[in-house]
Amino acid sequence: MALVPNPVNDGPVFAEVDMGGDSSSPTVRATVVQAATVFYDTPATLGSLHFSCPPLYLFLCENCLLFAINHLMHMEALFDKAERLLAEAASYGSQLVVFPEAFVGGYPRGSNFGATIGNRTAKGKEEFRKYHAAAIDVPGPEVVRLAAMAGKYKVHLVMGVIERDRYTLYCTVLFFDSQGHYLGKHRKIMPTALERIIWGFGDGSTIPVFETQIGKIGAAICWENRMPLLRTAMYAKGIEIYCAPTADARDLWQASMTHIALEGGCFVLSANQFCRRKDYPAPPDYVFSGTEEDLAPDSVVCAGGSVIISPSGTVLAGPNYEGEALISADLDLGEIARAKFDFDVVGHYSRPEVLSLTVMDQPTSPVTFTSASANAEVAKR
């Protein structure tokens, strides 16, 4: 079954919200993707799967073969959807496409992984095993495939993923340029509430702002955007196009996005999923704790609210609460200088002799070895 329905004619898959920009200044066409992920589906290649069979076997046992086939089908389903959305955005002339938080790997909305203070259930541990299997390695084959997609459609790509680093997971954003190069990543430094049970904490080494052909691009994920010191660090790096993949569909989120645009004098692009109960596995495989009995298959469990806002606080496109959509706007880069004339938070409006920020931006590791070769191996992770 097609994850993104084929149109009955040659029109677009999703209706696009299109707002024009000022043609007298350089413009960048940007799109935020509002779409549901394919939950518990592992975007992996056969070479990256881990089988339970002894390595000397020249064949796969039945369970492992089914596992491999299932994962390969899931890979194609998820990446077919991502590529179709990317191609659709590119057909509108988009130069930058931003996907939601955890689009690859899935946002485990409503799940508690069987955790209470002092106890974890066997079922919850099995849920984590499946979630771990659905995550991706960075670098890894999925990163290569995403880079190829960005290069194929000549767009800068910002993609929310669940990153697997051995047995710890991170909520991560990956960045790619329009030539198909992987630029780097941002790991969420502070997961929210129960997210802290399943995701590790990023450090100051992955708060990048990348200088690209279309401007300086960075990202903060969901409620990280409410952390003023993190925002200040990004402003100090000169961010111009501030990406905010999220899972928050509440009206209050719009106030945060508008504030950041005004505070940072930057464009803010917030991408959220729009998903219904049927986009997640059916019970008992997946249960929305405390609300499952109130949900029908078509019940909306995340209403989107994706939006694009200018440095002056003007809403250029969105917020959209209607369904899956591509939401686009032309970013007039001249707006940045006009906004900074009023307020430059780390420039003429700063008072470093009174207020200052120190960012620890070196990678952190729980183990340091005395030999350079061992430390090099740790650094590759």
From TrEMBL:
Keyword annotations: Hydrolase
Reactions catalysed according to its record: 3-cyano-L-alanine + 2 H2O = L-aspartate + NH4(+)
CDD domains: nitrilases_CHs (cd07564)
One GO-annotated biological process of the protein: detoxification of nitrogen compound
Top-level lineage group: Eukaryota
Enzyme Commission no: 3.5.5.4
UniProt enzyme class: hydrolase
Domain (CN hydrolase) ranges: 57-333
Gene Ontology MF terms: cyanoalanine nitrilase activity; nitrile hydratase activity
Active site (record annotation): 101
Role this protein plays: Highly specific for beta-cyano-L-alanine (Ala(CN)). Low activity with 3-phenylpropionitrile (PPN). Not associated with auxin production but may be involved in cyanide detoxification.
Family of this protein: Belongs to the carbon-nitrogen hydrolase superfamily. Nitrilase family.
UniProt protein name: cyanoalanine nitrilase
Species of provenance: Escallonia rubra
